[in-house]
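Example 9 (inverse folding). The structure is encoded as follows.
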């Protein structure tokens, strides 16, 4: 019997475990999932909590309950991985041996890397929303915020769901307009990027939306410290952005145990993998998926979904003595909430930036790309039940393929704008 250990019971770890269990018998493959807690969070829901659009208890479920019968769940901290021994060493001094290992432990939030971020003012004028607790505290602060300067800032990329800071700005604009206090609040997005987004066509569209909503954009702002008492974000080049309420997304890194496992990770502790096979460059029987992997694409849930198909097939190939296939093309799509019950949809991969068009197919695709619509908003809402009942159990989402299709895309006109 072959043994596979999966570190992480979030999106990637759960869908991989369930897919592999559906394809193999318990006599063929022993599957063990390890995680330090039993709280599976539907992370797209965190964006809605601060605005009262979602209740925290509705986005948290048991990790163990999402796993199919025949999958072992181990509640434990990982200390390190011994690649030369094919073994995972746990913090309780026990060891899990493996024939194949999948690292799906997500990204870590590194608040300590930004001076003052969790110092004086934290939870009073400085907040974040990348955890249930932080999103709930921010909800309570926003409920009484009716004037002043609201600043949204992410310190650096990569971060989980990189469009979330933009979405927060759009939803804050809507939230404040609904309360009748928008004219008394200045909203600023302070970003280390030179535009609203990393890709030029989408950056032009999203930057225009910020301007339409009178949301200021402070570009190339590399946050060096947070002065919660003085109400200032200070960049490394000593520029300042004043605030009355700051929403700061901390730097992200890979799982801490990766840094304690020589040769496994990059300088940020993300697992260094081949971008098409998802196999670790350090060992032939180790893979990584989702936020834990050092892939040059967005750390978004859809990326994990699309990666899962390639990764599961490659794990089965390696366990069968074959070489993996490089089938993952970097495909990602993201709904971008824009307020007023509307959203945009972007779809891209390693080679193709987000472009206008229709999704998933030309002419028949119901969802417009790079354009606000109510259908896109409904699509984002509909994804939550699909997440729990289709994606996590290891099923395919109808009409949504892992490979990106160019059908229905419009190539950009670099001189005159989008065609």
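The amino acid assigned to each position is listed next.
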């Amino acid at each position: 019997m072959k043994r596979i250990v999966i570190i992480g019971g979030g999106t990637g770890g759960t869908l991989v475990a369930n897919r592999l269990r559906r394809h193999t018998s318990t006599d063929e493959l022993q599957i063990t999932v390890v995680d330090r807690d039993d709280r599976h969070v539907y992370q797209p829901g965190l964006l809605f909590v601060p605005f009262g659009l979602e209740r925290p208890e509705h986005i948290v479920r048991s990790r163990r309950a999402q796993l199919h019968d025949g999958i072992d769940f181990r509640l434990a901290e990982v200390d390190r991985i011994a690649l030369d021994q094919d073994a995972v060493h746990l913090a309780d001094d026990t060891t899990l041996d493996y024939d194949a290992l999948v690292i799906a432990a997500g990204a870590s939030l590194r608040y300590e890397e930004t001076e003052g971020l969790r110092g004086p003012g934290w939870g009073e004028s400085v907040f974040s929303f990348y955890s249930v607790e932080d999103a709930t505290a921010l909800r309570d602060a926003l409920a009484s915020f009716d004037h002043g300067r609201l600043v949204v800032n992410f310190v650096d990329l990569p971060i989980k769901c990189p469009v979330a800071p933009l979405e927060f700005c759009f939803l804050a604009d809507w939230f404040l307009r609904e309360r009748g206090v928008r004219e008394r609040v200045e909203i600023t997005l302070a970003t280390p990027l030179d535009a609203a987004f990393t890709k030029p066509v989408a950056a032009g569209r999203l930057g225009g939306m910020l301007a339409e909503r009178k949301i200021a954009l402070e570009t190339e702002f590399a946050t060096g410290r947070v002065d919660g008492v003085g109400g200032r974000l200070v960049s490394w080049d000593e520029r300042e952005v004043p605030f009355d309420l700051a929403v700061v997304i901390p730097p992200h890194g890979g799982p801490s145990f990766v840094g304690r496992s020589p040769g496994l990770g990059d300088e940020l502790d993300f697992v260094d993998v081949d971008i098409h096979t998802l196999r670790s460059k350090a060992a032939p029987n180790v893979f990584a998926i989702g936020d834990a992997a050092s892939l040059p694409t967005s750390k978004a849930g859809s990326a994990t979904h699309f990666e899962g198909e390639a990764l599961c097939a490659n794990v089965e190939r390696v366990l069968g003595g074959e070489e993996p296939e490089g089938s993952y093309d970097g495909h990602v799509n993201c709904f971008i909430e824009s307020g007023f019950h509307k959203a945009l949809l972007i779809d891209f991969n390693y080679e193709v930036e987000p472009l206008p068009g229709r999704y998933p197919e030309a002419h028949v695709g119901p969802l417009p790309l790079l354009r606000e619509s109510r259908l896109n908003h409904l699509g984002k809402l509909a994804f939550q039940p699909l997440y729990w009942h289709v994606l996590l159990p290891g099923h395919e989402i109808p009409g949504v393929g892992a490979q990106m299709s160019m059908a229905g895309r419009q190539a950009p006109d670099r001189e005159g704008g989008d065609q």
